[in-house]
Amino acid sequence: MVGRGLTVIELIVVMGIMAVIITATSFNLLSGQRQVVKSGMVEQVVADVRSQQSKTMSGDGTGSTFGVHFDTSSYVLFTGSVYDANDSSNFVVSLDNNVQFVTSFSGNNIIFTPVSGEVTNYVSGSDTISVIDATDNSVYVLHVNQYGVVDTKT
Predict the structure, then answer these.
(1) What's the structural domain count of the chain?
(2) What angle do CA 23, 29, 33 make, to 5 degrees?
(3) SS3 label, residue 62
(4) Residues of the chain by 3-state class (helix, strand, coil), percent to 5
(5) I need a labelling partner for 66 at 20 to 30 A (CA). Which of 16, 93, 125, 150 fits?
(6) Does residue 128 lie in a domain region?
(7) Phi then psi for 42, rounded to 5 degrees?
């Protein structure tokens, strides 16, 4: 009499195939999630730079100048024509552990000129902020032109 069930070997083979499929799918899903997180972080940096420029142009508060200072693992939104690390009104935004900034701006600062919103002491060629992710070695490059317009490149 021939049985109509599955043998143990057939069950093991099917379970092995399912394990491979599930593993491949979960890796693809995780890499997509990481990409979305990085894109969101870059967009947040761009939004914060634009916000500081808008505050400077509108004379928000006391009509002060606003800027952004970049450290390796964070950036700081500040008020004034010079960055002061000890200023209590600074707002620090920290990055993910595997992400860092490299910038070509003088002093790692972008400071905006009141009313016009142009970048103070702009130097052509020294106008990039690179966002580097060590997990996959991807780099987002942000260019800020003399008028404060931010352009993103991957």
Answers:
(1) 1
(2) 145
(3) helix
(4) 40, 25, 35
(5) 125
(6) yes
(7) -65, -45
In a domain? residue 123: yes
The CATH number covering residue 94 comes to 3.55.40.10
Residue whose structure tokens are 């103070």: 120
Burial 16-44 (b: 16+ CB within 10 A, else e): eeeeeeeeeeeeeeeeeebeeebeebbee
Closest by alpha carbon to 46, among 145, 154, 144? 144
CB neighbour list of residue 127: distance below 8 Å, 6 or more residues apart? 104, 105, 119, 143, 144, 145, 146
One pLDDT digit (tens) per residue for the chain, 154 residues: 466 777 888 889 999 999 998 888 877 776 677 777 788 888 999 999 999 999 988 875 566 889 999 999 999 999 988 999 999 999 999 988 888 989 999 899 999 998 888 999 898 888 999 998 888 888 889 999 999 899 876 5
Amino acid at 133: D
Q: Which residue is listed with tokens 């700081």?
A: 76
CA distance 152 to 154: 7
